[in-house]
Amino acid sequence: MTPELSVVNTLNNSSRFASPCCAAHSALLPVRDENFQIKNLFIYKQPSHRCQILQISKVSPKPHSCAPPPIMTSDTLTMSKLGQEQLLTETLLNHLISKDIATPLPHDSNALTLQSHKMIESALTSRLSSTESEDSFFVCDLGEIKRLYQSWRIHLPRVKPFYAVKCNPNQEILKTLRDLGLGFDCASRSEIDTVLSLDVSPERILYANPCKASSFIKHASEVGVLKSTFDNSDELYKIKRFHPNSELFIRIATDDESAQCRLSTKYGCHLDQVDSLLQTVKELELNLVGVAFHVGSGASDYNSLYKAIRDSKYVFNRVEEMGLPSLKVLDVGGGFQYHSFVQAAEVVNYSLQEFFPREAFSELQVIAEPGRYFVSTALTLATNVIAKRRPNNDNTSSMIYVNDGVYGNLNCILFDHQVPTPKILFHSNSYHYNSATSSDHCIPDKIENKISMWGPTCDGLDCIKNNYYLKYDLDVGDWIYFPNLGAYTSTAATQFNGFQQFSDFIYIDSEAAYN
Amino acid sequence: MDIENYKSDYINKKESRLINSLLISNEYLKEIIASSDIKGISYNFPIQNLIKNKNKRLHNGYGLDNIDDDQFFIYSLNTSGFLDWHADMHDDITPHNDRSVTDSTELDQHIQNYWDIIQNTECQFLSNSQHFNPENTINVSPQKIMKLFQRDTVSKIGSLLNNKKLDLQTIKGLLNYSSTSWKNPCFNYSIIYLPEYFNDSLLYAKYDSTYNHVILPIISNDKQIAFNSIINNLKNWLLCLLELTSSSNYNLKFLRLYINRNSDKYLIMTLLRNINWINGKLIPNENNLNWLSSPENSNNIHNNTNNNDNALAYNDENFIILEFEC
User: Fold this and answer.
1) Tally of domains within chain A
2) Any idea where the Orn/DAP/Arg decarboxylase 2 N-terminal domain is (chain A) (predicted)?
């Protein structure tokens, strides 16, 4: 059968939006059929389960597949519906989940994610059955990262991503992103050194630490990393002294009130400081090449993206008016999240078109600093239950201790305000991967085991989950897993400190397997 | 009074004396502190300075050429236009490099300052051993614990200084040794004075060839410390400490910041929330039970002849520890 290629992308029609914020309440829903290879099938979900199929980049039958089955369920979602709105029923949602085509994300039962659960489950269970080790470990699906990059290219064709290494500096992930052609946003000399050691040229590195000591700047100079951000005059004088050939980006503050991690309260200059900084750039004869901003990690209010691009245009104009060389690069920062990527991308595209139309800014290079978008859903963490306590001496609640916590791979709870969702992997000699009812935030009808979950350090900070409910009453030796735990999690496991947290990684590549 | 309160009083008294002796009583430094251009002062010394007699220092193999004397550093705008640390060589504060001509009273005062700084640094990690070793039933008063602590500190520093068997090579090796842990005494101690952010509270620090361990004072809303200033200027004072740690005088690779858990939660969460952005890492507290059960430390405890020594314990549980690459 000849592979069929078809792309429909109604979102490119920016006239649909009166303002950037109207794209809220939708979700990216990539799905995969088990019999057919369907890659990058995105359905755009709106409130009340209205959904719209946006694109299918490639459809082909699996090799050696017998019958040519229809796409998924012929009665609900067919190729003929491509580009059309239709009701995404509960039945279809359940069908997609039951067929292991998609799974609900932890915090939004209406959102679905493209993950190869069969492969992840296989990796998890193989590990548990093949070793007595109780150490926590990650399953990392490099194929997920590749798919997300394809999605990036589709939705943000004007924007070249510079992956934020701080988000997850795992070397296999970095190599995968290197091979895909991404640049890298580094926050430290060790991150720079790590990326350079992977044969990445310095031109592909942006040094975006907002708190740079002189030693950092000297190091960037020594290794030939030119791209760097600044937000105050002190930094400019340091750069003039130690790295005068830098290609500088002025970082402007944004409204990041909705961000998971707010940044602008500390980083980025305000617009009323721009003129003074530009004047210093001019006096010091430094090489200003662009404007950068960051709406905060995990931002949810897309108005801030729109405003930041508008403010960037203001800086572009001021540069011209003050007689400095024209700027060449706009850095739209990070904060992109998997489940809201499509909406954020729409706003970026819309805003770019409004303030930096392609026709007038054909030479403009647009870059971004995404982190969690690329890795969040690619990693699954498995941890072992090492202790259990009944604080009230009855069966009403338990304190579950696992062998990983905020000082290890769950440091995202402190650093990133993440709320990881523990799920039962192994209990009572059975595996329970991807059981939709094994845990819940709320008190459900049939999930009766109230727990709090703690890391191994006996430290009050080391609380993973409070007031949580599990389907089974866990015992010591059982296993828990945390899906979608790739962002800001294994950073503590990196080099250079005396308490190295060694995490075992099992790598799978669902893209290679499907291909 | 429990050990924590007693410890706090002990530190405060010594700190008042240090501020008076090192900063206020010196007219030149008083002027510097009053100047709005000066953002910080650091005073540091190598522990070899505790040896009064120059001949003895030479005899012990420390030499004079490769050992820095105590020194003041000033954080202010440099000629290139940015804030930087530089040694202040003004005659009025250049310390007693030539001990032969130094007045003995003055020298005694310096020695007293050194010990105050060392003890105020090490004291922060002092704890009642019953806190994490309930089986230890010896009941020792806080006063007694502090006396034991003083003796223990002098003993540890003395054992580093008085080992006459060390040859020069070994000494050099020791001076270059790298300690990730707060537990070990270091070859250099310092105080850091950042009045713009921390008012009159001192930051205590110790360092070897790789790590600068800096202990922040307790920062809370109801203390005299300019709480809002610390929060709002987080980037500035952190950058100041990073610059100090990586300056040519220190040339260290890592800054470890010890934040007291009794500090305001908002400050702690603000620091943690931004930590990935400024390339910091959260360092776990050491597992004291493991430490106690290690043969080396166990021997240290059991070799003490006085049972009261069992009451002495050091741990880092009072702190959230952050590490920054410099």
Assistant:
1) 2
2) 142-376
